[in-house]
Design a protein that fits this description.
Ferritin; about 190 residues; 7 helices; disordered N terminus
Amino acid sequence: MKKIIVPFVLFFAVACSSGDEEKDSIEMAKEENSIKDSTASASPAELTADHNFVVEATSGGMMEVELGKYASVNAASPAVKQFGKMMVEDHSKADSILTVIAQVKGIAIPNVPGEEHQKHIDDLRTKKGAEFDKDYMSMMVDDHEEDVKKFEDAAKNAKDEDIRQFANNTLPALRKHLDAARKIKKALK
């Protein structure tokens, strides 16, 4: 039953909160015992792996949103523009849920993309039109192949139940993104 409640409460907490209300929603989720600190029995190395996944996923999500916004304006191809819009929508939703999990678990997450992700943003922002389309879609294929592997690993091996469930629940969207990116990349050649 808990597996059904957690995503609903997380979605409800994110959808219904803003600013200070978000803290109240997080407290409500804790009180409902739908998200709990399940790290008590995990070793420090296991906690570090889970926390690193959350930090990396947060940074990657911010990059996806930032590049999606850029693509929706600067791409030449309507398919690339639409893909960019999908990245903004889907990754913004996932990032909101992951932010709540991180806050509840006491995981410090970045408020800007990490160095590697920022390099991708900086590089692609120098491009427009067909050159941007080709490079962006190539990068999206590579990035989502890596993301799917990382999320599959977290879905199987994360010690924290909520992190494991987040990874598992996010995988279908990541696979959809990967399939779409591959098709668009192929069509651009």
